[in-house]
Amino acid sequence: VPMFPLHTWLPDAHVQAPTAGSVILAGVLLKMGTYGFLRFAMPLFPYATHQFTPVTATLAVIGIIYGALVAMVQPDMKKLVAYSSVSHLGYVMLGLFALNMQGIEGGLYQMLNHGISTGALFLIVGMIYERRHTRMIKDFGGIAKVMPVFATFFMIATLSSVAVPGTNGFVGEIMILIGAFRSFPIFAVIAASGAILGALYMLWMYQRVMFCPLDKPENQKLKDLNVREIVTLLPLAVLVFVMGFFPGLFLRKMDATVSHFLKDFNTRYEAYAQQQPQSLGDRIAAVLPASENKDKIIE
Known about the structure:
The protein is built from 14 helices and no strands. It has 299 residues and is an all-alpha fold. It has one domain. Helix 7 (148-162) runs antiparallel to helix 9 (185-210) and helix 8 packs parallel to helix 11 (227-245).
């Protein structure tokens, strides 16, 4: 999981990887870390999970804000999208460690959303790179005039990443924030500001690439997406709106599993917590021989 402060490998990995590698990394591999928390770490160590929840939530919120702020100053489109992943995965971790239905379901939903929106963004950046052999934002401008189909798909992926209502990203983020607010309200409020920053850097990038003056000769000769590229992006664009308008189709599949997970987690936590000595005297009594307890325990 590219979670602050262990996130530094991700931007360089994305920048150095080919387009296909970045799509697989964003769409599949990053989810292995968050899935590992949910599938292994949390069920196996419920007491430790509960004890470290404030620490994990703090790091998640820092990652949300830090990833967004660093993304705002990136000159490279691919690196900007990579830092947005740091921010988005912070939301996922915040939802999982809220330890309630809304948070965990929102985290699971956001895993799917991130794979779709960020995968689409990496495909789009790769397509424009094949035409211009540069990813620098300053090298573009006015692309929407010569590549309207490209601009449309780019806008759909951008709106999904920004979590505009009606897109898949909105459902995941709002559920995470609701779940987080029930567990740690202050963190939820701070995380909500990360959504504003996300809109700022994504829409700013889109505006500079698509709507600035078309004054570079290289951009004036660009060709729009071909059939193969449209067929590649179309399923992702459709999923953005299907998951945004009909989230129940997916969330109903999660209800029973998440409910069972929480019930089992709470049962394990309570059983383990009852075995833990609570006071200093109890802790000393747990390690002293029984015959010495009366004289040496300090309550």
